[in-house]
Amino acid sequence: MERLGGGAISRRRSVELKGIHIPHNKATAEQETTVMPLPSKVMLPMQQHVGAPCVPQVKRRQQVEVGQLIGHSDARLTCDIYSPVSGIVREIRQVHYSNGWSDEAVVIEPDGEQTVHESVQKPEVTDFASLVEALKHSGIVGLGGAGFPAWAKMNTDLSTIDTWLVNGAECEPYLSTDYREMVEHADTVLEGIKACLDFSGVPRSLICIEDNKPRAIELLRQMAADDPRIDVFELPARYPQGASRVILRNVTGRSVPRGGHLTDVGALLFNVTTMSEIGRYLRTGMPLTKRRLTVMGDAIARPQNLEVYVGTPISEILEYCGCAPGPRKVIIGGPMMGTTQVELDVPVVRQNCGLLAFGVNGPVVPRQTACIKCSRCIDHCPIRLSPIEIHKAYINRDTARLDELMADLCVECGTCSYVCPSKQPLVQSTHLARALLRAEQRKAKGRR
Ligand code: SF4
Ligand code: SF4
After folding, report:
1. Tell me: the pLDDT tens digits for 386-424?
2. Judging by DSSP bridges, how do beta strands 87-96 and 205-210 pair with one another?
3. Chain Cα centroid distance, residue 234
4. Residue ranges covered by each domain of the chain
5. Binding site membership of 19 for ligand 1 (Cβ less than 6 Å)
6. Which CATH superfamily is 128-284 part of?
7. pLDDT per residue over 163-193, tens digit each?
């Protein structure tokens, strides 16, 4: 395995130019974050993370306070859920998530007092074990969209890790929440990184930022200048630069073996807002209960970066931002990897970072024509897959061929669909192909 070693490395690497250039449309990037007032209710689904769902720890009609534990599980992989408001638990019922699933949720009506619960205390952290233990009570998950519990991601053998990557690429068009975190809260970003390096012994951290964010690059370089372990790595703005395997390869030159993890090749990768939340939690003890969303799209009268309480219904956010009635398309997340919404009474969950609404001039479902074998989908795939072959194998439900084509490695970035002149449903097929392969693997395990 290539090691970066302890010496200086280039702050910019000439990277392999797979992926695509797409219009950034980040018109809200230079607007200060605004704060949305308390919503009429917050809906807290019990699964807002990778791992086992939580179980409600409160009852109907119970008074709760800000930062109070609302959902918990004793499972090995999970992440506790905390109240963003003080108020009364009105009901515990099934709600839909923005991704179409449904689950039990605790619905709280705010009382407007925002009384903080007595359990919110600055954690005492003296070593790596106590850092991991503290983060178990922070509610912090991967805020780039993955939702993997932060404590679980770092709870690994760190003796072979030489680089802690911090992902500030934010390559999705429209979204600028990570950018705002870097320019508004560079202090907590660096506090989080320093705490992680201090307690883990990992020798180096690189904050990876696309070169279309010069203000964030400059600011973080200046503020990190007194710590030789931390530097900013500038990447060309090219989608999907922020995908974990892509950023790893472009920064360190390493590739993750199939079925492996970044830790197998000496690296950890945390989203920059996740790192900032770690810094904030260690400073205050307040668990993660708020999220910044980029709210944009041609149906939105007042586009902005908006801080909202986790659990806020997206219908109330759209109304607050002046969404025109009856938007043609509403997406949670970015336009490339986000999820189109079929209903609007769904809550914001911890890992959401964008809310887009488009009106009459918005996107239309493209007309699909026959593949012209131009190979653009293959040429631009950042993982070097053959999306059209995966699509054909999926149509035939040929799992052996899907395995051969390594469909499981797809990061669902949507680049293949974006470049396809025939508008083949390539990313949809790779998504379904991955699910099919996972189901096959589960079946095979059951037979053994
Ligand atoms: S096959 Fe997957 S990784 Fe490759 S371009 Fe398509 S969506 Fe992205
Ligand atoms: S980009 Fe579209 S048209 Fe070209 S080979 Fe791929 S699927 Fe066919």
Report:
1. 999 999 999 999 999 999 999 999 999 999 999 999 999
2. unpaired
3. 20
4. 35-120+287-358, 128-284, 376-447
5. no
6. NADH-ubiquinone oxidoreductase 51kDa subunit (3.40.50.11540)
7. 999 999 999 999 999 999 999 999 999 999 9
* 123-146 confidence digits (pLDDT tens): 999 999 999 999 999 999 999 888
Residue 13 Cα to ligand 1 middle (Å): 23
State the burial class of residue 314 (Cβ atoms within 10 Å of its Cβ: 0-12, 13-18, 19+).
buried
What's the pLDDT at 95?
Answer: 87
Q: Which two tokens stand for residue 39?
A: 């919503």
The domain made up of 35-120+287-358 has a fold known as Ubiquitin-like (UB roll) (3.10.20)
Ligand lying closest to the C-alpha of residue 402:
1
Give me 268's structure tokens.
Answer: 């950890």
Look at phi and psi of residue 255 and say left if phi exceeds 0, alpha if psi is from -120 to 50, else beta. beta
Ligand 2 pocket, 360 CB below 6 A?
no
| Residue of 376, 389, 419 best suited for mutating to test ligand 2, as the one with most atoms within 8 Å of CB | 376
pLDDT digits (tens, 9 = 90+) for 81-110: 999 999 999 999 998 877 777 889 999 999
**Ligand 1 in contact with 383 (CB < 6 A)?**
yes
In one letter, which amino acid is 329? Answer: K
The residue type of 98 is: S
Q: Is 373 in the pocket of ligand 2 (CB under 6 A)?
A: yes
Among protein residues, the one with the nearest Cα to ligand 2's atom 2 is 420
Would the CB of 246 count as within 6 Å of ligand 1? Answer: no
